[in-house]
Amino acid sequence: MSTGEGARRPTLDPASAAIRTAVREALTAHPDGAACRASRAARAASRSAPQVIVAVSGGADSMALLSACAFLHRRGELRARAVCVDHGLQPGSAEVAERVRATASEWGVDTEVVAVEVTGGLEGLEAAARTARYRVLEDARRRSGASWVLTAHTRNDQAETVLLGLLRGSGTRSLAGMAPTTGRILRPLLGLDRALTEASCRAQGIAVWDDPMNADAAFARVRARTLLARLEAELGQPITANLARTADLCRADADCLDEWAESVLEQLTGRAETRPDEMGLAGLGVLDDAILSRVLRSWLLSLGVPAQNLGAERIADLCRLVRTRVGRGPTRLSLPGDTEVVVGRDRLRFRTVDVP
């Protein structure tokens, strides 16, 4: 861990106050957090304070979040339990996790440390670690009966996500970045800058861990972070804030288009005579590209095709076949995993290919 005076009870400073407010607002913005609006006496009487799992790595963002949640926990505004996932990717990671546990204990919050084994595989080391981490967090949430898992993603993380999406040539959904909520994941700090979490830790003398992976240029996100800082310095523009705003705008559009597409898909596949693995072409050909691509992707996902097998180019190929093959002889689009979509005269059919 980097410089700090050791763990101690949080004191009020502007940065820490802003983080506490962000946690309160995030919880009150959702039905499960409505209890936060009640008076303290009413919460004590009804024991209705929302229960949350706080994801903590030992870095400044998550320690600032834990500090805020510990303060609200002691006030009875929520019931917090911290979970620290030790990925074992850095020397001394177990000691870092134990220091997190000790600090949380001093603040009155119980902490569970879970060690996981991570191997890169096809998805890469970062993605594998993320998958393992969220699996542990969701398991802890279910076992404890908590309403939410709180993560410490900031506006900087959001900007990095959008920039990576832009570099990949991604569509609206990817450029929407991280939503404030995803399932049972709640991101209360998404509207705050990383500088604020660092200021909160400095003001309170909280010791934080500087993960060496955050400085390893082998990872695309680290390179994106460096590029963002350089662009802001050279262009003199608030690019981090601007990219985060782009995410908000794209998310509103993507949510609307996804909802529209799901409604169309339900109409096309919800008839009693329609098999789940088939869909009529007549209703597809009249759709705009933005809706057609979403309908086809959602249909294939519902049939168990992995999302990583449904890139933009493959969906665009399927859209072209749908528009050009109406009334013509059958053709097919091969998918990974020995599956394919057969485009016939009047319908689509998804099937598994028999491999000799």
In short, what is this structure?
This is tRNA(Ile)-lysidine synthase. The protein is built from 12 helices and 10 strands.
List the helices and strands and how they pair.
Layout: H1 14-28, H2 40-46, E1 51-55, H3 60-74, E2 79-86, H4 93-106, E3 111-115, H5 125-144, E4 148-150, H6 155-168, H7 172-175, E5 181-182, E6 185-186, H8 194-204, H9 220-235, H10 239-269, E7 278-280, H11 289-302, H12 312-324, E8 331-335, E9 339-343, E10 347-352
Parallel strand pairs: 1-2, 1-4, 2-3, 4-6
Antiparallel strand pairs: 5-6, 7-10, 8-9, 9-10
Enzyme class: ligase
GO molecular function: ATP binding; tRNA(Ile)-lysidine synthase activity
Catalytic activity: cytidine(34) in tRNA(Ile2) + L-lysine + ATP = lysidine(34) in tRNA(Ile2) + AMP + diphosphate + H(+)
Verbal overview:
With 356 residues, this protein is of the alpha/beta class. It has two domains: 233 residues, 3-Layer(aba) Sandwich (Rossmann fold); 82 residues, Uridine Diphospho-n-acetylenolpyruvylglucosamine Reductase, domain 3 (2-Layer Sandwich), CATH 3.30.465.60. The chain is built from twelve helices and ten strands. It has a six-stranded mixed beta sheet with strand order 3-2-1-4-6-5, sandwiched between helices. The longest helix has 31 residues. The chain is elongated. About 2% of the residues have low confidence.
